[in-house]
Amino acid sequence: MYNIFYKYKPSIILVLKLIIVIAALYFIYYKLVFNQLFSVAQLKQQLYFLFTYKLWIIILLFLFTDANWFLEIFKWKKLVSVEKKITFFEAYEQCLGSLTASLITPNRIGEYGAKALYFTKKLRKKIMVLNLIGNLSQLTITFLFGFFGLLFLVFNYSFEFPKLNLIKLAIFLLVIFILFFGIKKTNLFTSIKTYLAKFIFYINKIPKSIIFSTLFYALVRYLVFSHQFYFLLRLLGVQTPYLDTMSLIFAMYFIASLIPSLSLFDWAIKGSVAIWLFSLVNLSVLTIVTVTTFMWILNFAIPAVLGSIFVLNFKIPEET
């Protein structure tokens, strides 16, 4: 069996690459064409409206995207330097290639394995941990700004959270309680504690300067894509005060980050949350769905298409 696999290994890898790229491109196409919240005709109409602006405004929109991803690439390059020095282009390839590969996985979990494959076996577990640290840094910034965004909304608007089904909530908490104590009595709990201890030990070994740099890149990146969202709202005629609008955007990213989803449907999660939140300032559903869709195209769809080139050219590194 091993000999057969080894013999056809190049062909198998090529087929896997094609499957990943075709699946990613199909899901992007499906999202745009069969969007239940947003028709193709409306998308064309809104695109036409945006492109009636001066060229520099369109360029600025794409510069937001470039800044967003360049900051992510620099963040990854800095983080991975703990284990191996890589060039900017290598970091660029790893970030966009892993985005394409993870597009159809829940919460982009496939990104961990995809990035790890760019390194030799002895480094892969550590690379996955570094990727987790990078994602946690972004999540930390999202939670921090989201908390203050929600706080601002609660004190300045008649803010009502969706009603909870107390029976379902009680059942959910009961299941979590049973699972926790069930796991606690098994070897799995011991394994989790062991891995957690190793994770904390590894983090403590990372220079503090790299941790702070990672958080700084995450902070600036967060400000870039949240202001890209704000800029699109302004282009579509939204006149809500800056502080109110940014608080709504911060709250949207915070709530959306708590909801597990496929990257493919990230637009729908953010769109649904944004529709609920921006109803506080009486914004039209079409405007919100337009902005969340364009944000998805600019920051996920286009980079994923570029990443497909790196997926097709991917080669597993030789072991040393």
Compile the SSE list and pairings.
Layout: H1 2-33, H2 40-50, H3 55-80, H4 88-102, H5 110-116, H6 121-156, H7 166-184, H8 187-205, H9 208-235, H10 242-257, H11 266-278, H12 285-312
Helix pairs in contact: 1-12, 3-4, 3-6, 3-9, 4-5, 4-12, 5-6, 6-9, 6-10, 9-10, 9-12, 10-11, 11-12
Characterize the structure shown.
- This protein has helices spanning about 1-35, 40-50, 55-80, 90-100, 110-115, 120-155, 165-185, 185-205, 210-235, 240-255, 265-280, 285-310.
- α4 (about 90-100) packs across α12.
- The longest helix has about 35 residues, at about 120-155.
- It is built from twelve helices and no strands.
- It is an all-alpha fold and about 325 residues long.
- The model has no long low-confidence stretch (mean pLDDT about 80).
- The chain has one domain.
